[in-house]
Amino acid sequence: MSILVWIITTCILGGTLSVACAALFAFSSRKQNFLGGMVSYAIGALLGAVFLNILPEAIKLTPNVAVLSGTVLFGILLFFILEKLVLWRHCHHEHCEAHLVVDTKHGSDHGRSGMMIIIGDTFHNFVDGIIIAAAFLTDVHLGLITALAIIAHEIPQEVGDFAILLHSGYSKLRAFQLNLISSFASVAGGILGYFTLQTMQSWIPSLLALAAASMIYVAVADLIPGLHKRVQLRDTLQQVVLIVSGVGTVWLMSVLMVE
């Protein structure tokens, strides 16, 4: 397949799969049990993709490693600011600060918080598409691993989004439709990234650094703090095993693709 076909196919399948899995979890009475495990696995997949694939590849491509490291640092600070502005949000449950805009007295905000979530997700998915395009333009294997990491953390995020949309007054069908439409913004981002980065190859190391920064930020600033709410030894061991499993999945994919 051509690189463009890889990008479009991955974005479509990734978006559809993450929304479908999230819907199953969100509408399940045991969603919290599944969600906790998915979050732990997502942490491993994100960090594994960053430190085993994305950053090593970016270092090989860049003429200045110091500038690349500075870009990662800048990206972490940028995503912190964007999250404060509720443009870039990675909440993985319905009680995070970005979600606390619902009129609890009346039980619904008549769709306002739900629409805010959809706008934020659309922007986020669009950027994810550009990141996937940059990875595929570097190497098909890197593109697949990056897409896997993004899908892994999209599922628990979408579960939280479903909860907010339902609480905001949307029906289950409408919540599913809005999340699915929002997920396809990644296709637009992927196509734009493909055609733009074709003529600006020098941007790819910086975009990979920003991709690494976004994944580090999500894993460290958003996902890991949520795990500390479960302090029992059994829960901690389960979290560690699932995080290692996420890293192991990325490592195994890297090995199999090289072979």
Describe this structure in words.
With 259 residues, the chain is an all-alpha fold. 80% of the residues lie in helices and 0% in strands. It is built from nine helices and no strands. It has helices at 3-26, 31-61, 65-84, 112-138, 140-167, 172-183, 185-198, 204-227, 233-258. α2 (31-61) runs antiparallel to α5 (140-167), α2 (31-61) crosses α9 and α5 (140-167) packs antiparallel against α9. It is globular.
Instruction: Briefly note the structural class of the backbone.
Output: mainly alpha
Shape: globular
Report mean pLDDT, rounded to a whole number: 82
Give the termini separation: 19 Å
Work out the number of β strands. Answer: 0
Q: Roughly how much helix do the residues carry, as a percent range?
A: over 70%
Query: What's the main sheet like?
Result: none
Q: Number of helical segments?
A: 9
CA gyration radius, whole angstroms? 18 Å
Which stretches are low in confidence, meaning pLDDT under 50 for 5 or more residues running?
Answer: 97-111
* Helix-strand pattern: HHHHHHHHH
- Portion in strands: under 5%
